[in-house]
Specification:
mainly alpha, 79% helix, globular, disordered N terminus
Length: 225
């Protein structure tokens, strides 16, 4: 089990630095990006920064860095709410606004309850906020598809594949966090394999975001040259 743990730790450490590289590359790919691609670049930088902030929290809080899960959930809710509202959805309904506010409010409540009021330990912690944020983003993606139902082919819908990959990624993420408490308390070493596979999934998602940014940057360069 020690060997599995060591390999998992090496992979996670490599992931952090590769994410930083991905984020920087995505940022410098643009000089004057349109809002959609600029926001994706900012998201990559933000996620890279949060990874290293999570390492800092682990040292300061003696390993009690599960607050990072809630901060990550809050970031996802706020970011994807703004992204879909500004760049993807044609109509911003009151229901959309209500779900955004309720999701963010619930996560803020959990932050207060788990880390100020009660100070829940890692083994007792349940990442309901992460499940809420993932479910909220899946609803956004489904709403996007519903809104575009009149366009019968993917080529007619801008950001069609982006939306589908977002929906797939957060569905997998949701399934990962549902058995979170079991994985934290599991002692056979399976959890290290599970979390390592999750790291590869996250890395693949960020590489996809980078490919979206670079593809548009190269297309724009070809048009202007």
């Amino acid at each position: 089990m020690d060997n599995i743990k060591e390999v998992a730790q090496v992979i996670v450490e490599a992931y952090r630095y590769s994410l930083l590289g991905i984020a920087l590359l995505g940022l410098v790919a643009w000089k004057k990006p349109v809002p959609f691609y600029r926001m994706l670049s900012v998201y990559l930088i933000l996620m890279a920064g949060m990874e290293f902030f999570g390492v800092y929290l682990a040292k300061v809080l003696n390993g009690r860095n599960h607050i990072f899960v809630l901060l990550d959930a809050l970031t996802d809710v706020v970011f994807f709410s703004v992204l879909y509202a500004r760049c993807l959805l044609e109509k911003k309904t009151k229901l959309f606004l209500l779900l955004s506010i309720l999701s963010a409010a619930y996560i803020c409540f959990e932050l207060f309850y788990n880390f100020i009021y009660k100070q829940v330990s890692v083994k007792e912690f349940q990442p309901y906020s992460k499940i809420v944020s993932d479910a909220f983003i899946i609803i956004l993606a489904l709403h996007f598809l519903y809104e575009k139902m009149n366009a019968f082919t993917a080529t007619k819908v801008k950001h069609f594949w982006f939306n589908n990959v977002v929906m797939l990624y957060f569905t997998i993420n949701l399934l990962v966090y549902l058995p979170f408490n079991f994985l934290v308390n599991e002692s056979t070493g399976v959890k290290f394999v599970f979390w390592t596979l999750n790291v590869f999934c996250i890395e693949a998602f960020y590489l996809f975001l980078l490919s979206v940014i670079l593809k548009e940057a190269l297309r724009k360069k070809a048009v202007t040259s």
